[in-house]
Design a protein that fits this description.
Belongs to the Nudix hydrolase family. Helices cover 18% and strands 27% of the residues. By secondary structure, the protein is an alpha+beta fold. It is built from four helices and eleven strands, in the order H-E-H-E-E-E-H-E-E-E-E-E-E-E-H. The longest helix has 13 residues. Strands 1, 2, 3, 4, 5, 6, 7 and 8 form an eight-stranded mixed β-sheet that branches. It has a single domain, classed as Nucleoside Triphosphate Pyrophosphohydrolase (Alpha-Beta Complex).
Length: 238
């Protein structure tokens, strides 16, 4: 079942975020970044063909049985924007990500999220689109990420920047509530559980997976569980 994109959803997400005491991370050894969890409308079936060449993007990454890395059949109703990063980037190349990046000097997390959304996917929103913030997530690669939840106000016209983004997807919020989501696995390198969020035919890991899980738990369900101790896979540590 898809989630209706309506004022009731907008008001519920805003109220759940406003009622939450946000967990912040202050670590002078880490750089500050922001990501945009942008809520848009979408049509069922508009994504039955993956616009990205999976064989080029996946770069030999092993896939679990029954998954092939394609992001298809995920649209419909209320959705969020998810990017497949370009494989030639210097850091976190070819990974799934929400639009976002490092804060410029003197820039707020909200301004950074809005700027990166515009630069990466061609969507320009104002501060009145902000519904609230999720908890900070500290990454293994040296960042503290602050997720900013935005209301897009419709489907929006997307124009991904080819230098940074291979493709951008409208992923239905119902995908976050699949019965097989979330998944947790163990790795020998850490005592913390690695979180995996199944979307389409792929698995989304932390930090993006942790942000999406908290959006489901807090934004959609009003559940205040922490996600900052959920682990990233080793390939995302650098």
């Amino acid at each position: 079942m898809t989630v209706p994109y309506d004022t009731a959803l907008r008001d519920r997400v805003r109220a759940n975020l406003a009622a939450h005491t946000r967990r912040t991370v202050t670590d002078p050894t880490k750089r500050h970044a922001a990501v945009a969890v942008t809520l848009v409308d979408s049509r069922v079936g508009e994504d039955r063909v993956d616009p990205a060449p999976v064989e080029d993007w996946i770069a030999g990454r092993p896939m679990p049985d029954s998954l092939d890395g394609r992001m298809i059949d995920v649209s419909g109703g209320a959705s969020f924007l998810l990017c497949r990063r370009a494989s030639r980037l210097n850091s976190h190349a070819a990974q799934w990500a929400l639009p976002g990046g490092r804060l410029d000097p003197g820039e707020s997390v909200i301004d950074a999220a809005l700027r990166e959304l515009h630069e990466e996917v061609g969507v320009e929103l104002g501060s009145d689109a902000v519904l609230g913030l999720l908890d900070d997530y500290p990454t293994r690669s040296g960042y503290v990420i602050t997720p900013v939840v935005l209301w897009g106000g419709g489907r929006l016209d997307l124009a991904p920047s080819p230098d940074e983004v291979v493709a951008v997807y409208r992923v239905g919020l119902h995908q976050l509530q699949r019965p097989d989501s979330p998944r947790f696995v163990t790795i020998p390198e850490s005592p913390r559980p690695v979180v995996q969020i199944p979307l389409g035919h792929d698995l989304i890991h932390a930090p993006t997976g942790a942000v999406l899980l908290q959006f489901r738990w807090l934004g959609l369900e009003g559940r205040a569980d922490a996600v900052d101790q959920l682990e990233q896979p080793v390939f995302a540590w650098k």
